[in-house]
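re: that complex we talked abt at group meeting.

here r the seqs, copy pasted straight from the sheet so there may be weird spacing, ignore it
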Amino acid sequence: MVRAWRALSRAVRRPVVIVTDVLALGTGAALAAALPQQPDALEIDRFAREFPALSRVTGALGLHEIVTSGWFLAIALACVVSLLAVQSEQWPRLARSWSDRLAPASFARAPFRRSGPVSRARQQPLAARFSSAGRIGLLGSPVFHLGLLLLVLAGLVRMLAFREVVVRALEGETIPAQAGAFEAERGGWLSRPFALPAQVQVRELREERYQSGALRQVAVALLTGERPGSGPEVREAAINAPLDVGDVRIYVSNAHGLAALLELGGAGQPVPLVAFLEERGGEWRGGLRSGQALELRFRTAVAPRPESVEVRALSDGVLLGIGELSPGSELALGAGRTLRLHGLRYWVQLRGSRDPSKPLFFGAVAVVVAGVVLMFSVVRVDTGVFVEGDQLVVALRPQRFAPLYAERFERLCKEWWPS
Amino acid sequence: MTGRYAVEIALTWAGVGLYLAATVALVFSVVFEKPGARRWGLAFAALGLLPHGAAIAIRWVAVGHGPYMLRYEVLSSNAWVAVAVLFLVLARRPGWSALAVVVMPLAILSVAIGLFSNPESRDLPPTLRSIWLVFHITFAKVSAAAFLVSLGSSVLLLLKERRSPWSWLERVPATPALDALTIRAAGFGMIFWTVTIAAGAIWGNQSWGRYWGWDPIETWALVSWMTYGTFLHLRFFFKLRPRPTAWLSIASFVVFVLALLVLPFFITSLHSSYFS
Ligand code: HEM
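got the structure back, here u go
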């Protein structure tokens, strides 16, 4: 077992393998960035219309679902194996070089080394002087690559355990504390269905706008609680200010608008209808089809809490009626049919997320950042001043970027030889 | 054209004028070996940063957000950061003045392209109102400047290695030093670009509830990060010689510019709302 791992480790640590791993991962990512990806079916359709021949090839090769494809995951796995092998070698090597003791022999092949008669030196070193600065820089590469491993691990945990939901909620609506209460739900293979720990009621939506009329903020007052031990409580969530409810987090997205609550009356039972209006060209606009023939179009100016909405009713493209409806009023559609507006309320798209990989991901990011900072901003530089025979030797050994240390070496030499 | 915009443009042009003067002086100092001209070059660059910085600040105050919404704002502020970084490098390392030959014209070109694009200000959409956006954007600009310095030293290295008849190239730092600077600057770029992507992930989590969503621009940023990673690996493992190293640095920069400055203007993505 140990021997097998050693052999594998040697193989996957080969520079060609590592470079191929990283290049393959980068190429996969580039394809995922360049081609429309699932679940964006609209973009994939558009691509197929614009480039029919190409799309047949990309479709056949499964290039519209790259990051969850077997080959991409295989590349990621190859990277992990290489990283594990590299790490198993990097840390012991670090321990060795961390504790090495400097001696004249350490500077035998130093990039900067000058010797001259001891007698001409400004001062006589009583004993050899060795110093080492920036040793911490040695940690850079092992820490960085450890962070990469943790990132992949976080990605794996996410793939298995994340759960995300989306719901379009109206003011006044209550989202129950049970699984399946959402419109769209997706999650990892091992994740359990998403459920709020307690029911949440959308109390009120507040919009803030700039003077220009552009949207500045959307905040939602949510009534949460009614769990054993905690009474109901109104709390606010807003864009970029999510709300924690138990172990889940609720996010407000900027998809929001006005909802017209209607009732279509006629011969039979009245039919309740809801039209969702979105902001377009400075107005709330939206449409709705009821049955085969009836088409309803709505519009009203974007203003705080509009009190009425213009409704156009059409049947097979023929206008049946136009009216400005406020809550309680009706529009006659002919043949005894009426459209009654019950109320206008805001709607908002809320997202819920439960993702146990988040702490691991952010920890990994911190490790990666620390690693890359150490790798490139701290360079270990060893200095030695010692006597060999009747010669004083001054030497400087930067671990990397040696040509950039020429000036520093000259300054060091000047300290010992004035001219 | 509003009065404020006219002032902004005038200040930006004043900055561009001083940058041009700085470029001429720095090139003169290298070509004719005049250290005095180098000091003038640095002074012009520093003076140019003032009106140009004032133009960016005036707009910042007037529109209520930093320079990250429009091509005009993005390109102009990127150039400001690039000139500031070059100034800091040259103030510390007088021997590197030749970097200005590459960095300054590109910075001036960037402001010019910005000046010819639509300057009409737009309000910051709510998802962009986050402190993480500020980190994200600031570090992106600094990484662009660091990668630009890496590009500058690669170009000088290739010119120097061409055995060209230009004698001024003899006064450019030696090939090993240019080679080391190419890698060091790319390394600094990697630091800032890593922080940029990390801040973007934190902000994405705050806005959308997920730290990574394979959005095209997000993914292009990752691709450019991996491109620099591949470049540094190749150099490290295969002990690449200076010329191939310089070519790889240039190729990585092209991928980076595509990811940061070109594709966001064309691709439909979550980032589209602030690149127009
Ligand atoms: C398959 C995954 C990877 C493996 C196995 C790997 C392995 C290595 C190894 C063995 C080194 C040499 C360091 C030493 O000996 O101390 C190295 C250096 C480095 N790696 Fe990776 N690496 C991987 C992925 C990445 C990625 C994704 C990046 C960034 C995008 C990256 C960036 C770097 C950098 C910047 C260096 C330092 C180069 C230098 O010192 O100039 N690595 N890597």
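couple things i noticed - Residues 74 and 258 of chain B are 14 Å apart (CA to CA). Chain B touches chain A through 49 residues (CB under 8 Å).
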